[in-house]
Design a protein that fits this description.
The complex is a heterodimer. By secondary structure, chain A is mainly alpha-helical. Chain A contains six helices and three strands; from the N terminus they run H-H-H-H-H-H-E-E-E. Chain B is of the alpha+beta class. The chains are: A mainly alpha, B alpha+beta.
Chain lengths: ~140, ~100
Amino acid sequence: MNFSKRHACWLGPLIGFFGFVSYFLLSTKLTVLRDSAILNLVIVLLAVVLAFSGLVALWKRSSWKGKSLHIAGTFASVSFAVMLFWYVFDLSYQMPGTSDMTLALEEAPDFSLASATGDTVSLSSFRGKKVALSFYRGFW
Amino acid sequence: MQSQEDELREAGIELVAISADSTEDSKEKMLPKGIAFPLLADPELTAIDAYGLRHVGGNPFGGDISRPAVFLIDEEGRIVEKMLTENWRVRPTPEMIREKFSGEE
């Protein structure tokens, strides 16, 4: 425990960084983790707890240099946690509400668009088949 | 995405994907991942507008993109289900799509 307290100033931010970045790497593979994000939220929170407990434990004994290191480490861990929480609970909801036009649709409007392989595909060519038409945000 | 499509295809459901990305972008970023279903490019947002899905300024690098949404369309071209979301992280799974379709029959 002493080890983790002494090294919390860099272990905390490292774990926080891992928790933040791994969300974006994992979430494309595991939809469960993408939807709930619970695993990554726990990781970044643990990082904050670790960094803060290191700060508290060493506060009395440390030099000013040690204190500033632990303050910086706690600050960095909190930043990773805040960024992930912000993304999960706020940013991903930032879009306009569902339009009345979408709600009013009954027949699927036809379209003709170029596909990535170069063909032109129209919705009407799928008549007689069940279609899941997925609009996605894209990769810019 | 591709494994989800295999699952749908087995259930007799065709997956068609549309985004505001250009065909070049889709080709570069998606085809190498082994995607076999049509990835349609709608850079002018004509189809996206026809379904009322334009998200103005939704691209953090500038420009409009589509809201995420999945429409389930039956053999006669009727929309049987609109899977809309207020949170772009959460999307329907193939199981949900299959269940919605089988509920219609």
